[in-house]
Design a protein that fits this description.
The protein has about 450 residues and is mainly alpha-helical. Helices cover about 75% and strands about 0% of the residues. The relative contact order is 0.20. This is Tripartite tricarboxylate transporter TctA domain protein.
Length: about 450
């Protein structure tokens, strides 16, 4: 590893920390919609594989912690992964313990990161000898992954029923483009479809504004009011032992370790289930129950995400988890730079993976830990007053439209619009991102299997 490459990795990690510190403080930003487009831009810019991986790891470590801070301070979920923390954070906020909650989140995130990374590499090493048989059955595994994630979702029956129609849509649009001469016969389109899925829920919300009745039913004339406690603006101790109790540290370690082998499952679902399991014995003291819950759940948000990226990437090279098929999708498939037969899995050896993940995770967790403990209230105050949420979302939408045009011209902009509307509506009905992304990757195998039945 050359000094120039190390400097590039450090620069990428610092850029990810700065960018996602501010994005993470903006309530309502979805992890996939803000991680995938920027990661794709880094890949398409021609960054070396180690730099891409270090950037992404730093981004998810930073974003997952920072997303929890608006939840604790102002009662607004920063992202999907912070939703399981809402109930406990609101209870602690009501008790005047918001600043204490953030410090516990920071320690939990550090525990989850430090526990998950070595375990993930160990599990990846165990799976690696079985990589070829697994990849030879990739179509079956991807389809099974979509079914599994559907069964773990909110609306199981609809999610199962939606898999085949979505697969047909994902395969039909490129076939139509080839028939019309819009793209060559050998070209595949996936990344703009991938981003169409990410923007779907937001697109549905925007299109609803064109409906007069829907628009009239929205709140008018009032601004959302939030309050920040003065105690959050004072300097705080940094030693983890002074911020959490021994039982909170023990449960965070155990649950982070338990979640790592379950990397194929939904991170949100695991965070909720294992987090609540860790406080099952704390029924008589709501405050201590919630304090342990936010610490453990913060550890789980990091352990589930990191395992969901590291294990499929190192051992297999195909996206077989919700995280790898969703936010980490550009690491596996970003034409023309990466595809499922030539991506980071094929370009890096184990030392390269370990170096990139270690640099990205340790630097970002150290910086974000200090930021969360010392300056979370100040940054929240700045972001809430100075950075419009709409501007951030508009930037990502514009980027997605640009990539749609690059993939297949103006017709594909409307194709991505179609995918966004369909997937956004299904998402609102309970068909989660994991099912949709896994179906996108499984679509060729599903359609081929359907054709063999006719």
């Amino acid at each position: 590893m050359t000094p120039e490459l190390i400097l590039m990795m450090l620069a990428a990690v610092l850029a990810a920390v700065v960018l996602y510190t501010f994005i993470g403080f903006i309530p309502g930003t979805d992890e996939t919609s803000v991680l995938a487009p920027v990661t794709l831009a880094v890949v398409l810019a021609g960054a070396p594989p180690q730099v891409v991986l270090a950037f992404f790891i730093a981004a998810i470590v930073t974003l997952n912690l920072m997303n929890g801070i608006p939840t604790a301070l102002v009662g607004l979920p920063g992202g999907v992964m912070s939703a399981p923390l809402m109930e406990h954070s609101l209870l602690l906020r009501g008790k005047g313990l918001a600043s204490d909650t953030i410090r516990k989140m920071a320690v939990g995130s550090a525990i989850g990161t430090l526990i998950s990374i070595p375990l993930s590499f160990a599990l990846a090493g165990l799976l690696a000898p079985m990589a070829d048989p697994i990849k030879n059955r990739a179509p079956i595994i991807l389809a099974a992954g979509a079914v599994l994630l559907a069964l773990l979702g909110k609306n199981r029956i609809l999610a199962l029923v939606a898999i085949v129609p979505m697969a047909l849509m994902f395969e039909a649009l490129p076939a139509l483009y080839r028939t019309a001469g819009i793209i060559p016969e050998d070209k595949k389109i996936s990344i703009s479809f991938f981003l169409g899925i990410t923007v779907g829920p937001m697109l549905i919300t925007l299109l609803e504004l064109l409906n007069a009745k829907r628009r009239a039913g929205l709140p008018h004339g009032d601004r959302t009011k939030t309050a920040l406690l003065r105690s959050g603006f004072t300097s705080q101790a940094l030693m983890p032992g002074k911020l959490i109790s021994p039982s909170e540290g023990l449960w965070s370690t155990l649950m982070a370790a338990a979640s790592t082998p379950l990397f194929v499952l939904s991170p949100v679902g695991l965070t909720f289930l294992l987090g609540e399991a860790s406080v099952a014995d704390q029924k008589n003291d709501p405050v201590r129950r919630s304090q342990r819950a936010v610490t453990v759940m913060s550890a789980l948000t990091h352990s589930t995400y990191l395992a969901g990226v590291i294990i499929p990437l190192v051992a297999l090279g195909i996206p077989i988890s919700g995280v790898s098929a969703g936010p980490a999708g550009p690491l596996f498939n970003a034409p023309p730079v990466y595809d499922l037969t030539d991506n980071l899995h094929h370009k890096l050896q184990m030392p390269g993976f370990i170096a990139a993940v270690t640099v990205g995770a340790l630097i970002s967790v150290a910086i974000t830990y200090v930021i969360a403990v010392r300056w979370s209230s100040q940054i929240t105050y700045f972001v809430m007053r100075r950075i419009p949420h709409e501007a951030v979302l508009a930037l990502f939408v514009a980027f997605i439209l640009l990539l749609a045009y690059i993939d297949a011209g103006i017709p594909n902009i409307f194709g991505v619009l179609l995918i966004g509307v369909v997937c956004g509506a299904l998402n609102r009905l309970g068909v989660n991102y994991g099912v949709q992304f896994m179906t996108l990757y499984a679509a060729p195998g599903i359609v081929k299997a359907l054709a063999s039945l006719s």
